[in-house]
Amino acid sequence: MDLKIIYLDLPFWRAEVARITLFIADIKFDDFRINSEEFNYLQENGKLKDGTLIPFCQLPVLVINGQSIAQTGGIARICGKLSGMYPEDMIEAGEVDQIIDTVTDINELLNPSMRENDQAKKKEMRAELTNHDLPKYFGYLENILSANNSHWFVGDKMSIADIAVWGLLGWFASGVLDDIPPEILNPFERLKKLYQE
């Protein structure tokens, strides 16, 4: 099987969940990272210069034997199935999916402030996120993690849900998000432990 993950040259959770899942399972793949010029081209043309289709003109994309698959959740599930890190049990699979969808929701909460050019307004938006929205969602994740009697979100072994949350938490812990302090994770002991281990 010929696998290629296409994303920008940065370690963001949307691509990392697939990359890390395949890496852990020792599944070979082409880690194809593009620059901003190539990204602009694909947004205008719906494909790379080599003709690779980019559905929805966005990344990440997983190419399997020449067939392009878009959207983080679908890509994560495919990589999870290939690696054994996505449950076969329907209920457990749904539990994994709800975590990945929540990580996506958290990511989407940040988008308006990331697009805001007025720095004062951006700072105000980030304060609202820091004081209300993000702690609420981190609390949801903390409760689900605490309710499971293992170190993981679902069952007793690592899944793509854990990798997705780990990648998201790394983004917050890195301090790269202006006006959102890395200490925002401090009240959430189980999440911090998942991230740090």
Give a quick set of tags describing it.
197 residues; alpha+beta; Glutaredoxin; Glutathione S-transferase Yfyf (Class Pi), Chain A, domain 2; 2 domains; four-stranded mixed beta sheet; 7 helices; 56% helix; 10% strand
What would a concise description of this structure say?
The chain has 197 residues and is of the alpha+beta class. The chain has helices at 13-24, 36-45, 72-83, 90-115, 119-147, 160-173, 189-196; strands at residues 3-8, 30-34, 61-64, 67-70. It contains seven helices and four strands.
Description of the structure:
With 197 residues, the protein is α+β, with helices and mostly antiparallel strands. It folds into two domains: 3-83, Glutaredoxin (3-Layer(aba) Sandwich); 90-196, Glutathione S-transferase Yfyf (Class Pi), Chain A, domain 2 (Up-down Bundle). It has helices spanning 13-24, 36-45, 72-83, 90-115, 119-147, 160-173, 189-196, and strands at residues 3-8, 30-34, 61-64, 67-70. The chain has a four-stranded mixed sheet with strand order 2-1-3-4. Strand 3 and strand 4 (67-70) form a beta hairpin. Helix 1 (13-24) runs parallel beside helix 3 (72-83) and helix 1 (13-24) crosses helix 6. The model has no long low-confidence stretch (mean pLDDT 96).
